[in-house]
Amino acid sequence: MPTRTSEFQGWARAHQARVEEALSRLLPAAEASPQRLHQAMRYAVLGGGKRVRPLLAFAAGELAGANAATVEVPAACVELIHAYSLVHDDLPCMDDDVLRRGKPTCHVEYDEATALLAGDALQALAFQHLAGLRVAARPEAQLEMLRLLAQAAGSHGMAGGQAIDLSAVGRALTLPELEFMHIHKTGALIRAAVLLGARAGDGLSDPETGALDHFAKCVGLAFQVVDDVLDAEASTATLGKTAGKDAVQNKPTYVSLMGAAGARSFAEELRAGAHAALEPFGERALRLRQLADFIVLRQF
Amino acid sequence: MPTRTSEFQGWARAHQARVEEALSRLLPAAEASPQRLHQAMRYAVLGGGKRVRPLLAFAAGELAGANAATVEVPAACVELIHAYSLVHDDLPCMDDDVLRRGKPTCHVEYDEATALLAGDALQALAFQHLAGLRVAARPEAQLEMLRLLAQAAGSHGMAGGQAIDLSAVGRALTLPELEFMHIHKTGALIRAAVLLGARAGDGLSDPETGALDHFAKCVGLAFQVVDDVLDAEASTATLGKTAGKDAVQNKPTYVSLMGAAGARSFAEELRAGAHAALEPFGERALRLRQLADFIVLRQF
């Protein structure tokens, strides 16, 4: 009999493969005109990444009684938004990075203008599929999913978080300011992944949705805290992206404000908070619980 | 009694004011955090432009029996997409332009990273409002509007057209290649404006929608042909953007391929095609007819 851990790994691998297949199908063909743009879009999305957001969507969908076939499109659309944000984030006028997921970044492999347009087109593609394919039982629920994802991507979510991040470089931030930034920059999209997965089902009460939302907030913040620890401690080879960047750029991080041990212990607190939020769901929340563990205990 | 022309001008001014008010309301407040990002978004959208796309949406809405209050959100959302595309198009890695609508471009007034994020957030904002506000009688129609707008913005529409444009600089294009580029770069969003306006009503048959689509294609291409003529002939002061750029950048245009007289006469042909497409609608299409005239006969 497999252990719980290896059983979770099997689930994760199967669902990573499922979203990879969905992404490949939803992206424009590499041979379709304009080819260079479409190749850059596929390059930026396929063959890399832990797919944490899609996994959260699948797990929340399981909890809400949706099957994986229904969740895969919203899961893929959240990942398209995440992938576009990485392409733009890596551009010279932003973080100016050359390595992502172990490969040259999109503007290095192609060129800046193509990377800019690939990001723009990936964002549009996410909304196109989320609107054009059947992803919920009722069209009203689908509109709500579109609204949630757009809000999470926009100036009160991810793009806003990146703007706060930019303005923070070289400045001394307080812990509450750092948290405010990350709730936007990474937290909003992680929250959208969980809520879209849950909406693909149809069986959650308002208090249940609220509990899930609290879980998503804990996990989103934990994800960032662990990212900061790994950036400070791991190597570029392990991460597949440039390590030690935060310190070089003098960026405020949980490690710079709390120390590595303090940050690790804060991540543990958030993991406990995430588990507590899931208590009302019992065994239905198994996958979400395992994902919270995976996010906090990962080494890459 | 006012002449038809001055009566049209009154209608256009009233609806330009209406969409301006809607845009101001739909954009995040300048004081809301992150302020610099929100200020850049407002700067890029408000107080300029002919608002051709919203006017087309209002006129198509009138034809389809929708009132202006229903059309104003889709009209504004199309304009948000247009405005974001101008911000990204003006960036140094794209057209590298410093003047737009008589003002410094967004990255000159703010900075490149802020302009990039402002464009990203404007795109998300368009889908957020189109999904979150009631813009059609049935939610299915609203989903179709979202799909249409996203497709028009993406790699098979506007972003794709810009990619083709980039790859064409300094190359000799044939007329069909030039047309293919413009059908994507400007045509797709103009078509979306007309179709979204019509969808806000609910009374068009499939053949009527087809006729409207043909009108939109003619008008979209005419818009670009006239743009080329104006770029070659008008001054920077009149245009509010840098004139003569196409020749300097050795870009293929209708003027470089057909000469100014040939391009003017092609624009006239397209205007006639647009009028012909509207014939089945009789007087209901008055505004669309007037807009086709305005687009071809404009001097700026």
Explain this structure.
2 copies of one chain form a homodimer. Chain A has one domain (4-297): Farnesyl Diphosphate Synthase, CATH 1.10.600.10. Chain A has 14 helices and 2 strands, in the order H-H-H-H-E-E-H-H-H-H-H-H-H-H-H-H. Chain A has helices spanning 4-26, 35-45, 52-63, 68-89, 106-109, 112-132, 139-153, 158-168, 175-200, 206-233, 236-239, 245-248, 254-278, 286-297; strands at 99-100, 103-104. Chain A has a two-stranded antiparallel ribbon with strand order 1-2. In chain A, helix 9 packs across helix 10. Chains A and B meet through helix 2, helix 6, helix 7 and helix 8 of A and helix 2, helix 6, helix 7 and helix 8 of B.
What's a quick, concise take on this entry?
The structure is a homodimer of 300-residue chains. The first copy, chain A, is mostly helical and 300 residues long.
Give structural attributes.
mainly alpha; homodimer; 300 residues; 1% strand; Farnesyl Diphosphate Synthase; 14 helices; two-stranded antiparallel sheet
